[in-house]
């Protein structure tokens, strides 16, 4: 058992986490009621960390709108660039992500046939996803396996090599893989 759980530190950790969650909820509610023009006019007045979070929120909204158009028109290149920009904003503006997932994301960005990539699951214990040219999916998967297993041998040794990289295809509905 983690010794921090036995000495009262756990209570403080839970209390602090609850406070942070409450602040994030309040910030999201606030951002939803602020017009982008008002944000742009006053963003330099925000505390630096809050300014970065706000930048992520407003630029993510723009990326979603642009992404919808790129998807509708079948423009995989533009859609992929928006996925990657979203991921970078999550790392630098929202400040989430762990070193192993950020490294995996960087590998995916370099992989052959990848239009765009980002991590999912808040970037701490999640996964990475990529939009890949279907004709190059196996090549990209092989590249990712090779590069990640070399960069993170300890973590990679805990993975089943056959399922560490999954190639998924669009389907008609959600299903269990």
TrEMBL record:
Which positions, given as ranges, span the membrane?
Answer: 12-31
Please name the InterPro entries in this protein's record. GHMP_kinase_C_dom, GHMP_kinase_C_sf
Question: Which residues does the UniProt record annotate as the domain GHMP kinase C-terminal?
Answer: 72-148
Task: Please provide an example of a Pfam family that matches this protein in its UniProt record.
Answer: GHMP_kinases_C
A molecular function GO annotation: kinase activity
Q: Which GO terms describe its biological process?
A: monosaccharide metabolic process
Keywords carried by this UniProt record:
ATP-binding, Carbohydrate metabolism, Kinase, Magnesium, Membrane, Metal-binding, Nucleotide-binding, Transferase, Transmembrane, Transmembrane helix
The name this protein goes by in its record = GHMP kinase C-terminal domain-containing protein
Q: What organism is the protein native to?
A: Citrus sinensis
